[in-house]
Amino acid sequence: MEYLEIPKRTSGNRTYGLTSIIDLGTPIGDLKNILTDYHHLIDIAKIGIGSAYVTPNLKKKVDLYKGFDIKPYCGGTLFEKCYYQNKIPEYLSSLCDLGIEWIEVSNGTLNIPLQERLKIISQIKKDFHVMAEVGSKDSNQEMPISKWKGEIKLFLDAGCEYVITEGRDSGTSGIYEKNGDVKCDLISQLVEGIDSKKIIFEAPTPKHQMYFIKEIGANVNLGNVKLTDVLILEAQRCGLRSETFYLEDHECKLPL
């Protein structure tokens, strides 16, 4: 069914226009049914917070994602827990055993010094595809825009394939106000001089997703997407929802 003029979407093994979902305990049977229909709309799967450590049949879940050409990784909270307990070598070994090739380096809960994170990235980038996260889960902690931009650039220069902007699964911190509103000035300045194709904006609700689609374009990278919202998100990207109805290929207010 192809008769409408809609924004052209990236497809296949995408490098941008990514949809990164958050898995907070979806049973394997349910997950298999969902992926059978919607796997082509999903690029990355985060096994959220530190839940990978207590997920039953984790290896089967990882293999299921990989079987559908989706890249699984563990939430940054697990990385931070391992850092806090001096268990990073054990963590890396467990990822290898599981066949997980992507890793998130974050400091959303712990205040891990920037230079320490850069050092870790330099040590692991030869063995893993690295994503770094910028921003805090503490809604009371404000970061200057210059620091946001500086860290993103440093992480990309250090070899990270993508940088994730913190938004939590609730959309109430990091790039969002406590009430869930997007920090619009922050976003507009973040993409000045930075390739937004390398940024994954955490956008846990359709309202957040619509903002980024309208401001950056149909092929913006979005993270923390709920599995149940994957099809809705794709419809939004294609201008098939009222709020994105007039979206066209050339409409892109911010540089992509």
Give a written overview of the molecule.
The protein is of the alpha/beta class. The protein has one domain (19-244): Alpha-Beta Barrel (TIM Barrel). It contains nine helices and eight strands. The protein has an eight-stranded parallel beta sheet. Helix 1 links the parallel strand 1 and strand 2. Helix 1 (28-38) runs parallel beside helix 2 (58-67) and helix 8 (206-216) runs parallel beside helix 9. It is globular, with a radius of gyration of 18 Å. The two termini are 28 Å apart. The mean pLDDT is 94. GO terms for molecular function: phosphosulfolactate synthase activity. Belongs to the phosphosulfolactate synthase family. InterPro entries: Aldolase_TIM, ComA_synth, ComA_synth_sf. Keywords: Lyase. It is an enzyme of class 4 (lyase).
SSE layout:
Blueprint: E1 19-23, H1 28-38, E2 44-47, H2 58-67, E3 71-74, H3 76-84, H4 88-98, E4 102-105, H5 114-124, E5 129-134, H6 145-157, E6 162-165, H7 184-190, E7 199-202, H8 206-216, E8 222-226, H9 230-237
Parallel strand pairs: 1-2, 1-8, 2-3, 4-5, 5-6, 6-7, 7-8
